[in-house]
C-alpha cells in the first residue's frame, strides 16, 4: 500500500465508525437533552451564514472533555483530523474562536445541562441514593502560581503600570500631538486581557480580606475580654495581656479595700502585741498583687514573642493571582500547593455526581450545609424521573438514606442541622478503624449514649461495628468520580478563567462524567434510548 494510492471514504458517514462505537451513543444522548437555553443564543438570521448548531457544539465539547481535550485550538484540530470529531461535526468544522465563544456562554446554561444529564441517568435507572458521600477535590486553575502577588507586590505593580502608561502617553502626545490618537501602546504597557483591571480587583479583594480579618480579630478579642469586663477590641495576641492587667487591677483594688477596713478597725483601742498592732503589707507588697504582677509580665513577654513570630512567619501572607483573580493557593495531599479551586462534589452509590459546586475556599466545613441542600434538591429531581419501581424505593427511603463525609466537614452545626442521617468522621480513617476494633474487643456499649455532645456522640457511633462499616463506603463512593475525572478523562486543569466561567466549566465536566458513566456501566444503550422515546 502506498500513500499516493487513491481511496474513497464511504459516502455515508454512518459507515465511518463501527455501529457499537460510543460516539454514536453520545450523539443520541445529546439529542435527548433539553438544550433550549443554548439554542436561544444561536444566530439564525441577518447577514452571513447561520450559526453552528448548538447540539453539535455541545456534542463536540462532550466528546472532547471525555477524552481530556479542553483547548479550543486542539478541539478545532481534532475536528479536522479525528474521525470521531468529524462524524460529530458532520463535515461542518467550527474554528477555535467559535468553540471558545460557545463555551464562554456556559455560565447561563451549564447547571441546566447538568440537571438534564442527571434526569436522563435517572430515567435509565441510575442514581441510587441509599448512601451518598460528600468530598472536596482540588482542581488547578488556568493560572500560574508565579502570577501570585502580595498586597505590596500588587501596589508596586500597579504603580509601575501607571508609570508606564504615563510615559507612553507623554511620548505619544509629543509625537502625535495632545488629544490625537497614534499607534497602540507598547506591548509592555498594554494588555488585551485587561491586566490593569485585574490588578485593581486583586488589591480590592486583599484590602477587603484584611479588613474582614481585622474585624474577626477584634470580635474574638471582645469575646474574651467581655468576661473580664474589659471589652476594648484588642488583637488576639494582646488578649492575655489585657486579662492579666485586669486581674492585677482587681487584686490592687481588693487589697486597697482590705487596708481601708483594717484602718477603720484600728481607730479603736489596740492592745499591745495583738495582731491588729502588727505592720500590714502595702498594696504593691501584698502576695496576691505580686503574683498578678508576675503573671502580667509573663503574658506581656508571651505577647511580644507571638508578635515576633507573626512578623517572622514563613510565606508571603495573603496573595492574589493576576491571571485568575478568583483562584486561590490550594493545599494538596502530600504537601505543596496548586493554584486552583476547591470543587465540592456529592456522589451517589453508583458513582454519579448528583450535586457539585466550585468554591474558592481552601477548607470544606462551611460547604456542608449548602451541599446538603443541593443534594436534597437533586434527590427530589431524581426520584421524580426514576422508573416506577425505583421511584417507589426512593420514596420509601425518603430520598437520601445516609450521607458520609470526612473530618474536613466536622462541626457541631453540621452534625445537628436538619436533613438526612449522616456520618461525619471525627478523625483520620485509620484512627477510626483502630478505635472501632478496640471498642469491639471491649464490647463497649457506651456508644449508644445519645445524650452526649454531638461530636462525642458521633465519635461513639463511629466506634461501633455498624457505624464503621457504613463509613467504609465513603472512600469508594466519594473519591471514585474524582479519580475517573482526573485519570480516565484526563481533566486536571480548567481551561477558562474567572469564577463564573470556571464554575460553569466544572459543572459541564461533571455532566460529561455522568454521561460517560452511564455508557461504561451499560445503562445508556441504543435500546434504552429507543425505549425512552417510545
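Sequence proposed for the structure above (534 residues):
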Amino acid at each position: 500500500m502506498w500513500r499516493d494510492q487513491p481511496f474513497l471514504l464511504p459516502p455515508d458517514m454512518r459507515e465511518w465508525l463501527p455501529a457499537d462505537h460510543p460516539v454514536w451513543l453520545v450523539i443520541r444522548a445529546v439529542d435527548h437533552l433539553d438544550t433550549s437555553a443554548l439554542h436561544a443564543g444561536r444566530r439564525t438570521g441577518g447577514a452571513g451564514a447561520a450559526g453552528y448548531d448548538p447540539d453539535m457544539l455541545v456534542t463536540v465539547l462532550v466528546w472532547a472533555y471525555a477524552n481530556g481535550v479542553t483547548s479550543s485550538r486542539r478541539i478545532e484540530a481534532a475536528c479536522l483530523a479525528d474521525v470521531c470529531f468529524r462524524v460529530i461535526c458532520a463535515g461542518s468544522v467550527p474554528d477555535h474562536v467559535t468553540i471558545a465563544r460557545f463555551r464562554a456562554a456556559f455560565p447561563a446554561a451549564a447547571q441546566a445541562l447538568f440537571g438534564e444529564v442527571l434526569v436522563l441517568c435517572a430515567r435509565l435507572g441510575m442514581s441510587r441514593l441509599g448512601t451518598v458521600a460528600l468530598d472536596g477535590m482540588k482542581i488547578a486553575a488556568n493560572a500560574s502560581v508565579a502570577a501570585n502577588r502580595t498586597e505590596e507586590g500588587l501596589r508596586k505593580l500597579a504603580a509601575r503600570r501607571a508609570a508606564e502608561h504615563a510615559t507612553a502617553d507623554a511620548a505619544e502626545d509629543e509625537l502625535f500631538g495632545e488629544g490625537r490618537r497614534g499607534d497602540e501602546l507598547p506591548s509592555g504597557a498594554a494588555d488585551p486581557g485587561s491586566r490593569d483591571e485585574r490588578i485593581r480587583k486583586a488589591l480590592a479583594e486583599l484590602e477587603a480580606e484584611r479588613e474582614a480579618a481585622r474585624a474577626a480579630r477584634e470580635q474574638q478579642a471582645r469575646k474574651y475580654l467581655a468576661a473580664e469586663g474589659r471589652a476594648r477590641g484588642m488583637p488576639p495576641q494582646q488578649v492575655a495581656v489585657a486579662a492579666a492587667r485586669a486581674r492585677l487591677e482587681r487584686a490592687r483594688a481588693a487589697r486597697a479595700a482590705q487596708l481601708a477596713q483594717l484602718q477603720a478597725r484600728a481607730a479603736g483601742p489596740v492592745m499591745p502585741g495583738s495582731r491588729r498592732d502588727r505592720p500590714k503589707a502595702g498594696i504593691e507588697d501584698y502576695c496576691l498583687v505580686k503574683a498578678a504582677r508576675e503573671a502580667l509580665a509573663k503574658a506581656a513577654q508571651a505577647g511580644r514573642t507571638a508578635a515576633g513570630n507573626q512578623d517572622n512567619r514563613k510565606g508571603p501572607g495573603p496573595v492574589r493571582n493576576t491571571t485568575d483573580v478568583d483562584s486561590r493557593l490550594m493545599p494538596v495531599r502530600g504537601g505543596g500547593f496548586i493554584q486552583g479551586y476547591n470543587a465540592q462534589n456529592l456522589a451517589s452509590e453508583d458513582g454519579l455526581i448528583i450535586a457539585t459546586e466550585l468554591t474558592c475556599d481552601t477548607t470544606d466545613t462551611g460547604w456542608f450545609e449548602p451541599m446538603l441542600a443541593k443534594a436534597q434538591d437533586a434527590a427530589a429531581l431524581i426520584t421524580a424521573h426514576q422508573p416506577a419501581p425505583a421511584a417507589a424505593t426512593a420514596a420509601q427511603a425518603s430520598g437520601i438514606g445516609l450521607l458520609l463525609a470526612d473530618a474536613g466537614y466536622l462541626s457541631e452545626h453540621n452534625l445537628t442541622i436538619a436533613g438526612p442521617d449522616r456520618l461525619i468522621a471525627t478523625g483520620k480513617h485509620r484512627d477510626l478503624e483502630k478505635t472501632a476494633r478496640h471498642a469491639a474487643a471491649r464490647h463497649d456499649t457506651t456508644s449508644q449514649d445519645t445524650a452526649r455532645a454531638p461530636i462525642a456522640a458521633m465519635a461513639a457511633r463511629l466506634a461501633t461495628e455498624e457505624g464503621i462499616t457504613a463509613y467504609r463506603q465513603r472512600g469508594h463512593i466519594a473519591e471514585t468520580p474524582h479519580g475517573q475525572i482526573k485519570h480516565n478523562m484526563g481533566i486536571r486543569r480548567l481551561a477558562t478563567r474567572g469564577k463564573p466561567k470556571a464554575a460553569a466549566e466544572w459543572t459541564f465536566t461533571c455532566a460529561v462524567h455522568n454521561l460517560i458513566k452511564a455508557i461504561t456501566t451499560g445503562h445508556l444503550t441504543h435500546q434504552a434510548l429507543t425505549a425512552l422515546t417510545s
